[in-house]
Design brief:
Order of helices and strands: EEEEEEEEEEEEEEEEEEEEEHHEEEEEEE
Number of strands: 28
Oligomer: single chain
Helix content: under 10%
Radius of gyration: 19 Å
Strand content: over 45%
Distance between the termini: 27 Å
Shape: globular
């Protein structure tokens, strides 16, 4: 099996495996605290040319930063069960100077940049692994879960009316490990919904208007997870085995589009190489053109890369274990 060359995050420039693209570090930002102590275990990030928004799943803290200075600007909403409050933030999106948060209990919430709530759409959910608001802000899609064995995609408008339902159900018989084996990346470009069936290693394009779907199975030897050799009952009763199984999975977690390319990010985790992330670069037919692999050996095993994109830029975090500060890296991917 081909072993990837793992690039360091402080590399100024990195060629892709097939030499078709450049992967260049353009910014390294130290996120500076002045409103509240920085959250640990940052899980989500969204950004554009002016702002950075971060979220922490464990602490339920969402913060707006100035991209140029790294200074905290505002707290976005707050943790709780009331209107415009949230728990378990599962994803963040920044669209037209609005901040969108999604969580299982409180639905999709939109905020102004000053942190004040604008709108809130609550829908039945147990866990939302991903969501996407289209650029027109007319509809949004969520990778939803309402039971222990059923992950699917729903599309809603901002009146809370369901436009499509039960799309993208895969055949993952390990869904009881939720949220560790939930749905993958999702991208909504009306009328096309693009999503990842990560446990099947497939990308699907679904036309919302016609109901026609097409899928492509990605061929990547690195995208493999170990087989489940014990029953769910045995795994639940043995925390060590469960923890070991979770730490050795490859998960297709993000999907972004820029011009005619898709960036498909996969988190690889295994004991030999620690955590590393792979960016597959796909054309509009989902054919894999190239791949870029990044790694940072100082990153804690459980501190996964947290990603989002803006145009052809991708951001990811790591915690500096010496200063205990959060660092944001922004890289640019360009075709040669």
């Amino acid at each position: 099996m081909h072993q990837p060359l793992l690039a360091q995050t402080n590399s100024l420039e990195l060629e892709s495996e097939n030499g078709l693209f450049d992967f260049k570090l353009i910014e390294e930002i130290v996120l500076l605290e002045n409103l509240v102590p920085q959250p640990v275990n940052i899980n989500h990030v969204a950004f554009d040319e002016n702002y950075i928004v971060t979220g922490s799943l464990l602490q339920s803290v969402v913060i707006l930063y100035d991209r140029k200075t790294g200074e905290q600007l505002n707290l976005i909403g707050r943790s709780g069960d009331g209107p415009f409050e949230y728990q378990r933030v599962t994803h963040i999106q920044l669209v037209n100077n609005k901040i969108y948060l999604n969580c299982a209990e409180n639905g999709l919430i939109a905020y102004q940049l000053d942190g004040k709530g604008i709108s809130q759409v609550i829908y039945p959910s147990q866990f939302v692994s991903n969501f996407y608001v289209d650029d027109s802000e007319n509809v949004f899609a969520v990778y939803n879960n309402q039971s222990d064995d059923n992950f699917f995609i729903d599309i809603f408008d901002f009146d809370g009316q369901k436009q499509s339902s039960n799309l993208g159900v895969g055949n993952d018989n390990e869904r009881w490990l939720s949220p560790f084996t939930n749905g993958g990346g999702i991208y909504l470009d009306t009328p096309n919904l693009i999503y990842v069936l990560k446990d099947e290693n497939k990308i699907v394009r679904h036309n919302i208007n016609t109901g026609v779907s097409e899928s492509v199975t990605l061929k990547n030897e690195r995208f493999k997870s170990p087989p489940l050799t014990k029953s769910s009952e045995q795994m639940r009763s043995d925390p060590t085995a469960l923890f070991d199984f979770i730490l050795n999975r490859s998960m297709g977690s993000s999907l972004y589009k820029y011009e005619n390319y898709y960036f498909h990010e996969i988190d690889h985790r295994d004991k030999q190489t620690s955590n590393y992330s792979e960016f597959q670069i796909l054309n509009d037919n989902f054919e894999q053109l190239d791949s870029i692999v990044i790694d940072n050996p100082t990153t804690k095993l459980l501190n996964e890369f947290s990603l989002n994109s803006f145009k052809n830029q991708i951001a990811y975090f790591r915690a500096d274990e010496v200063t205990d500060r959060n660092l944001l890296f922004i890289v640019e991917i360009n075709k040669k």
